[in-house]
Amino acid sequence: RQGGQGGQGRQGGQGRQGGQGGQGGQGRILTSDFPSVWRELKVAFIISLLGTCLLLGMRSLGILQTWELQAFDRLMQLRPTEPSDRRILVVTIEEADIQYQTKNNMTLRGSLSDEALAQLLRKLAPYQPKAIASDIIHDFPYESDLADLIKQTPQFVAICRINSPQSNLVSISGPPDLPVQQLGFTNFALDPDNVIRRQILGMASDDVCQSDRAFSLQVALRYLGNPSLNLSSDGLRIDRVLFRELDYDAGGYQLSPKDALGVQILINYRSSLPQQISLREILNESASDRLKNLVKDRIILIGVAGEKQDLHLTPYSINNRQIPGVIVHAQMVSQIISAVKDERSLLRWWDRWAEIVWMGSWSFVGGILVLWRRSLFYRGFAIGIALVVLVGSCYILLLAGFWIPLVPSALGLIVTGAGVTTYLKSDR
Q: Is-contact 146 118, C-beta < 8 A?
């Protein structure tokens, strides 16, 4: 019996030793996995770093600009509908309005005769609009009757155009008898795809167009009264609101020096167009019963609505639908007065270092997701979910007024994921 017990004891001892040996073996297996995991993480980090550097180089050369601007437009279009600015009324001039002037024996040297403009000013004056602005070229003197009327209308603003080498546009003067304080340049900042996403607030004048302030700024200042203006290296401050000057590499841009002239900002468009009424409706008094509600304390913009030469693309131009230049000016005026009066957010962008960290982080995420799941299906699914989160994050931040890198971050996510996948296959 003792022998049997001894045998059992020895067997038990061997069993216990065997069990301990098994546990020690598992510990060695787990421990031996750590170097492999750290090595793979190091590879993912290096690939994400190289991918980020590559994308930064491509971005600085402007290779990604078209894609980034298109992505910006799509996110803008996805924003909730915003009502039009009720402080602005646009008086449109179409072919029917030109025919109306001709039929009433008015002398036309363009789309708006001096007689029609004089009648319009007289009909608007009793309702005390805050500003009346004409977005129609008038580079010759006003007729005496109209000139006297405009002298009595200090809130009137006309346009001129500064020489623009990048768009091959020559300078055009404003009305010779109008003080420069009532002039604003009408130049638009066109992107390479001819979409207007930027607004010029000020730039150096020339001998022909002597105003260094934009038409939209001059109109907005009349509505705001006498706000304080302070121009600095950061941009233009109106009262307490800073309109931050657009950097040449802000957001998805890589602007050339000639495209970055003057004080420029991003345009935070409203999705809804401003209220409009035709010139003939006012002149023939068919809208007299509602004119007071349309005009009282408002900004009145006058412009052509049907000329192909003055139709433009915006971020909201789905299927290349263009809008008249006077409507673009209305959006610009609305942006200024809404920021100052209503604290409506202006579009901003991150500093360069923050964009680099953002792009690098998403590149590294792509590598981590590939390491986390070895199945090709799950890798693709995880990358897809990450892309959805990325797009959603960029959209939410745009709602808050920030334009951050979407396209390079998405490319970094995909490129790093593909690079780590290739490494894992070659390492087997």
A: yes
CB 192 within 8 A of CB 181: no
Residue-level pLDDT at 427: 64
Judged by DSSP in three states, 133 sits in strand
Between CA 324 and CA 320 the distance in angstroms is 13
Give the start-to-end residue ranges of the domains of the chain: 39-69+350-427, 82-347
Specify the pLDDT at position 55.
97
Residue stretches of the chain with pLDDT short of 70: 1-35, 165-167, 373-374, 427-428
Q: Residue 103 — φ and ψ, nearest 5°? A: -60, -30
Q: Where are the beta strands (DSSP E) in 239-387?
A: 241-244, 263-266, 275-278, 299-304, 311-312, 323-324, 348-349
CA angle, 341 as apex, 336 and 345 as ends, to 5°? 60
pTM over cut 0.85: yes
Give the pLDDT score at 31: 42
Give the chain's mean pLDDT.
90
| Type of residue at 2 | Q
Residue 419: helix, strand or coil by DSSP?
helix
Angstrom distance (rounded) from CA 349 to CA 401: 8
- Per DSSP bridges, beta strands 235-238 and 241-244 are antiparallel
Q: Return the sign of the alpha-carbon dihedral for residues 146, 152, 155, 157.
A: positive
CA angle 263, 266, 268 (to 5 degrees): 135
Strands 323-324, 348-349: pairing kind: unpaired
Contact between residue 206 and residue 161 where contact means Cβ atoms under 8 Å apart: no
12: enclosing H helix or E strand: helix 2-60
CA distance 149 to 308: 31
Q: List Cβ neighbours of 254 (8 Å cut-off, separation of 6 or more).
A: 59, 60, 61, 62, 65, 248
DSSP 345-392: PPPEE--HHHHHHHHHHHHHHHHHHHHH--SHHHHHHHHHHHHHHHHH
pLDDT for residue 372 = 77
For 61-126, where are the alpha helices, taking DSSP H only? Answer: 65-78, 95-103, 114-124
* 157-176 tens-digit pLDDT: 999 999 976 667 899 999 99
* DSSP letter string, 26-69: HHHHHHHHHHHHHHHHHHHHHHHHHHHHHHHHHHHTTTTHHHHH
Please list the residues that pair with 221 across neighbouring strands. Answer: none
What CA–CA distance (Å, rounded) separates 237 from 228?
Answer: 8
